[in-house]
Amino acid sequence: MASDEGNGPVRVDSWIWSVRLAKTRSAAGTACRAGHVRVNGDRAKPAQPVRVGDEVRVRLAGRERVVVVSRLISKRVGAPVAAECYVDNSPPEPPREHVAALAVRDRGTGRPTKRDRRELERLQGARDGGR
Questions:
Q1: How many whole angstroms separate alpha carbon 64 and alpha carbon 127?
Q2: Alpha carbons 15 and 3: distance in angstroms, whole number
Q3: Where do Basic and acidic residues bias regions lie (predicted)?
Q4: How many Å apart are CA 65 and CA 91, to the nearest integer?
Q5: CA-based angle 114:120:125, to the nearest 5?
Q6: Is the alpha carbon torsion for 32, 59, 51, 14 positive or negative?
């Protein structure tokens, strides 16, 4: 197993990548440099060490994840093993808004007529207020 518990702390960017909070290690490092990673409330540089019990806040892809380190690893492992390395205290993900499907016209039918356009606007609820 890729556990470093006896060897001391692990870099925060490496840990974020190894527990699958970031897709790549460079993305984890970039997030640290951009100020999107906090360890125990303080902004973290990529090489900052994390220890068991630290709270790590990661903001990636528009979502903030709040996790508490329960085990240190420095190598990427499978998702079930990675999930055991932290306690997830993240707020629930907001529900996705229902997005109406865009009207798809057959290729080669040309521009919609005024009548077609008005039907589409009626079906879509005329979101722009009729201009």
A1: 31
A2: 11
A3: 94-109, 116-131
A4: 8
A5: 125
A6: negative
| pTM for the full predicted model | 0.68
Nearest to 86 by CA among 73, 103, 67: 67
Beta bridge mates, 86: 69
pLDDT digits (tens, 9 = 90+) for 1-15: 454 555 678 999 999
Residue 53 Rama label (left phi>0; alpha psi -120 to 50; beta): left
SS3 16: helix
The one-letter code for the residue type at 19 is V
pLDDT tens digits for range 78-105:
999 999 999 999 888 777 776 556 667 7
Identify the band that residue 110 occupies on the pLDDT scale cut at 50, 70 and 90: confident
- 35-62 per-position pLDDT tens digit: 999 999 999 999 999 999 999 999 988 8
Q: How many CA atoms lie within 13 A of 52 on its CB side?
A: 12
- Give the dihedral of Cα atoms 73, 76, 77, 83; nearest 10 deg: 60
